[in-house]
Amino acid sequence: MRVPRAAALSHVLTSPASFILALADADIHVYVETSFTMSVAKLLSKRAHLVPGKLRIWEYFFEVPLNHASPPDGNLSLFARSIERYEKPVGAIKEEAKQLPWLLYLQGGPGFGCRSPQNYGWTEKALDKGYQIIFLDQRGNLIYIFPRELSLQDIPTGTGMTFMLGGVALTLYMVGYVVRSAACFRRLMDKEIVLRLDSDLEHFGYFTRPTLAGLESTQGFDDAPLYALVHEAIYLQGSNASNWSADRVMKDHPAFLNFSTSNDEPIYFTGEMVYPSMFSDYIELRNLAPVADILAQMTDWPSLYDMERLANNEVPVYASIYVDDMYVSYDFARETASKINNCKTFITNAMYHDAIGAAGKSEEVFKQLFALREDVMD
Q1: pLDDT of residue 276
Q2: Is the pLDDT of residue 15 over 80?
Q3: Contact (Cβ atoms closer than 8 angstroms) between residue 35 and residue 176
Q4: Which of the four pLDDT bands, split at 50, 70 and 90, describes residue 143?
Q5: Contact at 8 Å (CB) between 349 and 335?
Q6: How far is it, in rounded angstroms, from Cα 189 to Cα 209?
Q7: Looking only at Cα atoms, what is the longest distance across the chain?
Q8: What is the per-residue pLDDT across 175-233, written as a single tens digit (0 to 9) for each?
Q9: Residues 6+ apart with CB under 8 A from 310
Q10: Read out DSSP for 156-192?
Q11: Minimal CA–CA distance to 107: which of 356, 306, 337?
């Protein structure tokens, strides 16, 4: 199976214990690859520290091949964290260590790293289920950048089940679309930063410095340049070129170019779109502009999916699909899920795309997906 390159993690998890793979975003691509032998990762360092809540966090640094299919291409560093319950015994009681099953979390993105494990709302529930969790920082990975694909042979064989927590990725389409919805606009208006922008215009007639600073903090391209660089590329396969898809579609919908508040026309927002102009607007992206253009014109992408294998999949898959998802088309997600054998879906219009990371929602997503696993349908 293949996802954007996460390097070798199978060598962290040496136990034959049952294994769970949790996929956090819909832009993680799954593909089967058996054409080469995986190399073993080298553990560079390992250290632990305690955090409130009787939790122990381990931090790992590994050295893995840049390209498993071509080891001479060199190596790269990989960072991961794991979290487990920590109990300090009253006395010197020796007990045989119990190997708990692993749950692997792959951060969505592309280009944003994992937070520390205790900062995810669903962590406690996963620990309560009896798992130890490992957070592979494969997308932003702090200072590390990875190529686009990786064989999931890096992940241990015998995967027990898979969770998809941010919609289900497209399998057959390369599409460009923008969000154009009054309902979506109202949802965005609930956000603090949008309310501050509106308030500034109403009371001062211009945006104040604190409001602009807050707005700037929501645009992470300088801190996570990989997001902008491969945002469209991760969906490409075959001879399709993105040719700056969002930019092309925008020009076909002139209503999106209306930024005036002096008329009655609504102002439309876009969601998660990247435009060529950003590579001059953002300082950290400027040197990457030539690379971005090369990626936008590429037409020799490998296939992302083996549809026959997906149709014959035997690993249980539990996926959340959001009716009002701004970023993953509900219809396409349903179609993709229908092509994956042994896939059950939790469908809701009470949550949005980022529910797994949203306060008060992540526990509910986790609960509903485990209900699909543990319960039976009437």
Answers
A1: 94
A2: no
A3: no
A4: very low
A5: no
A6: 20
A7: 75
A8: 444 444 444 444 444 467 888 888 998 899 899 999 888 888 777 788 888 888 888 88
A9: 30, 171, 339, 340, 341
A10: PSSEEEEEE-S----SS---------HHHHHHHHTSH
A11: 356
Sequence-ordered list of residues with C-beta below 8 angstroms from that of 301, at least 6 positions apart, any chain? 233, 236, 237, 238, 239, 240
DSSP 297: H
Residues whose CB is less than 8 angstroms from the CB of residue 376 and which lie 6 or more positions away in sequence, other chains included: none
Question: Computed from CA positions of residues 190, 193, 195, 197, in that sequence, does the dihedral angle turn out positive or negative?
Answer: negative
75-79, 107-111, 122-126: which is most confident: 122-126
Tell me the pLDDT tens digit for each residue of 225-262: 888 888 888 888 888 899 998 888 888 888 887 766 66
Which residues, 6 or more positions from 284, have their beta carbon under 8 angstroms from its beta carbon? 221, 222, 223, 225
| Share above pLDDT 90 across residues of the chain, in percent, rounded to a whole number | 21
- DSSP assignment string, 217-265: HT-TTTT-HHHHHHTTGGG--BT---SSHHHHHHHT-GGGG---SSSSP
Nearest-angstrom CA–CA distance, 65 and 374: 38
CA-atom Rg of the chain in angstroms: 22
What mean pLDDT comes out for the span 12-40? 37
Token pair recorded at residue 230: 């491969």
User: What's CA 352's distance to the chain center, in Å?
Assistant: 14
Dihedral angle over CA of 328, 332, 334, 339, nearest 10:
-120
CA distance linking residue 170 with residue 35, whole number of Å: 24
Q: What angle do CA 34, 37, 42 make, to 5 degrees?
A: 130
Q: Which of 35-39, 69-73, 290-294 has the lowest mean pLDDT?
A: 35-39
Q: How far apart are CA 80 and CA 84, in angstroms?
A: 14
Please state the separation of Cα 23 from the chain's center in Å: 7
Per-position DSSP letters for 137-151, written without gaps between them? --SS-TT----S-EE
